[in-house]
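Chapter review: from sequence to fold.
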Amino acid sequence: MRVVLFVCVLWLYSPALTAQVPEWDRVYTFDESTIEMNTSLVTLISKDVSRVRFRWNFDQPQVLAGLPKEKYQSQLEVMEFNCSSNQYRSYHSTYFDAAGNIVRINDVPGNWRAVAPGSMIEKLFVPGCKLIKSKTNPKPTEEAQLEKVALFAHDVAQFLEKTNDFKPLIDRFFVANYLDGYLRDRKTNWFLNLNRDTAAALNRQELQRYYVALMNAGYLMSLYVISHVPADSDPTPSQKLLPSDVLQLYRNHPFMAHYRRRDDLSDDNITTTEQLRSYTDLLEKLSLLMRNHVTRIRATQSEAWQEMLENWHLYQPKVRVCAENCFGLPDGTKFFEVSIPVFELQVAEVSGGLKIVTAISRF
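The token string follows.
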């Protein structure tokens, strides 16, 4: 049965039917023969082993080894390559006469052998492995990349909606050194209200704690407020929408004693570690209260929230190439800018996977 199946499949590649073969590429030329490789078909056998098809065409009939009465003029050989260990073997061979009729089939796989430098097999092995790599790890098109980023952004949004917490999102989706990238950027202050010099002087643990508290408070308050305000309604001061316990905490927290007159903060206003720690404490306590409220009212299921999502241009990444100061990544890195609920993200491929490089609130 195995021989019959191979005959049926390999017959399609016989010289008499070359018009049906999608593409054969010549890989070597002798004085009286040529070798071509089928560039449309690669069979993945295991993690390391793949099969590639080669066709030998001879100007004159050749005698089969040990069978002087049987002659062939072309040969289709299936080779198995282990590109990682530099080994090969002949897996299956079919011999054809000048008319394209099958003369003989060798159905017994050969032994695995090492590819010797400068050998004839190396001239097949090198292009064969290159073909295998292109088939098993194809270079993604921009359209495929955009779709991949859109799905990634959707996963991020779903994860955040499920956890209502930015900390595990950072652990799972962010580049490891995102804080260093933020500090290198002189165009944007990624730490709202925090003086740049103060941010640079903090240890990374304390800086991340502040960033997480800031993002959580912004996300949860936005979620709560939006769920109470239809998209086509007149603007309503957020102070009138927030729960009373949240407002009470905000106004009575010790940190607010420094800003009681304005009841607000301006950019780069926090200049000392003591102020930062107090403000972080306020944001964390606000987030704790807000998380309970958005969970209780099922804010993401509200009609107002769903209506707002329909009006945002979410999960539609745009590509830009970072020429310099690329948040610690190499110059020329391709960034994907994409919106998710409440946040704008910059995403890049790092070590073979997508990671968030920056995130900032849209509000």
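Two observations follow directly from the output. The CA atoms of residues 194 and 270 lie 5 Å apart. The longest strand covers residues 49-64.
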